[in-house]
Design goal:
Bound molecules: NADP nicotinamide-adenine-dinucleotide phosphate
Radius of gyration: 19 Å
Number of helices: 13
Shape: globular
CATH topology: Rossmann fold
Largest sheet: 7 strands, parallel
Pfam families: NAD_binding_10
Keywords: Photosynthesis, Photosystem II
Distance between the termini: 44 Å
CATH class: Alpha Beta
Protein name: SDR family oxidoreductase
């Protein structure tokens, strides 16, 4: 039995569908307020619970072999729910889930993280560092997937790369190549390592194409035949904003931290782990082309 925590989200939902398509039994921990219709439709079972409610985590983990954890607070906070905080969900809640899984005798714990985490970049990196550290001491077989930035977030309107409005925000210089990755490809990898007999403890992954923000903007401009309005935030301003906002508006601090990371940390990883598993990852330029096509 698999337990997916974060199943109503973009990444977790895809993982559920992949595991169900392969005939696996999947249980999903879903908050009382969230719609579980899509999960039930694909034959997953649903248990109600919350990362802020440790007893619900213990119940959810009973009889489970593998936990796949993708839950995160940032998107819901940016959408207007100011609580619970990133620390309460991504750190304290996720640590409680690891404890519950271990106590319940779960064999494997698959966790989504990021590459080159840096506590100074805000609450989400701090949370992921704490969870990775805890998993490092676990009796369970742990598989940590450190993924580069998702195309659907960081090359899309939600990440202020808005081709329809012709507007984009850039933190820093915009000339650091990153390997923007498709959420589908991250999901395929996580579903694969959840079932393979001898998975690695850690994989760092990115998409097939290294591309800077400037190159992404140039491609968008070429495809839409119009200039994008670029709003720039210098690196020192982003650093200051992260410090000031960390407590007052943790999700925005985290979003700035992600932008700064993308501008300053070289992508030394690639799509090798995906291809080794038969996954053909989507290049970032294909994603930008798809978005441009949707505009006409
Ligand atoms: N975006 C990137 O570039 C990137 C890069 C590397 C790693 N990641 C990681 O990938 C994951 C993102 O996954 P995603 O795209 O699926 O995010 P998402 O669409 O925002 O989904 C978040 C999920 O977390 C659940 N959740 C939130 N609060 C919860 C709580 N208190 N208890 C239980 N579940 C809760 C949500 O449930 P509700 O529906 O009830 O809100 C939802 O299922 C995150 O861990 C993120 O850090 C992202």
């Amino acid at each position: 039995m698999f337990l997916v925590v974060g199943a109503t989200g973009e990444l977790g939902g895809r993982i559920v569908r992949l595991l169900r398509a392969d005939g696996h039994d999947v249980r999903c921990l879903v908050r009382a307020s969230s719609d579980d219709g899509g999960l039930r439709e694909v034959g997953a079972t649903v248990v109600r619970g919350d990362l802020t409610d440790p007893p619900s985590l213990r119940v959810a983990c009973e009889g489970v072999d593998t936990v796949i954890a993708t839950a995160a607070a940032i998107a819901r906070i940016l959408a207007g729910a100011r609580t619970p905080t990133i620390r309460e969900i991504d750190e304290i809640g996720m640590l409680a889930l690891v404890d519950s899984a271990e106590s319940a005798g779960v064999q494997r714990f698959v966790y989504i993280s990021g590459p080159d985490l840096d506590a100074s970049l805000g609450p989400m990196d701090r949370a992921k560092l704490a969870v990775e550290k805890r998993l490092g001491t676990s009796r369970m077989r742990t598989v940590i997937i450190r993924s580069d930035a998702f195309q659907e977030i960081h090359l899309a309107p939600v990440g202020r790369f808005d081709m329809a409005a012709g507007k984009v925000s850039v933190i820093g210089h915009g000339d650091n190549p990153r390997r923007w990755i498709a959420t589908d490809d991250v999901a395929a990898l996580m579903a694969a390592v959840a079932v393979e007999p001898d998975p690695p403890a850690m994989l760092t992954i990115g998409g097939p194409e290294a591309m800077t923000k400037k190159e992404a903007i140039a491609l968008a401009e070429q495809l839409t035949q119009r200039k994008m309005k670029v709003q720039r935030m210098p690196r020192p301003v982003a650093r200051l904003a992260i410090r000031v906002l960390a407590r007052r508006y943790d999700a925005l601090a985290t979003a700035f931290g992600a932008g700064l990371h993308q501008d300053t940390v070289e992508a030394t990883w690639d799509d090798g782990p995906l291809r080794e598993r038969g996954i053909t990852p989507r290049p970032a330029s294909d994603f930008i082309r798809e978005q441009a096509r949707d505009l006409v």
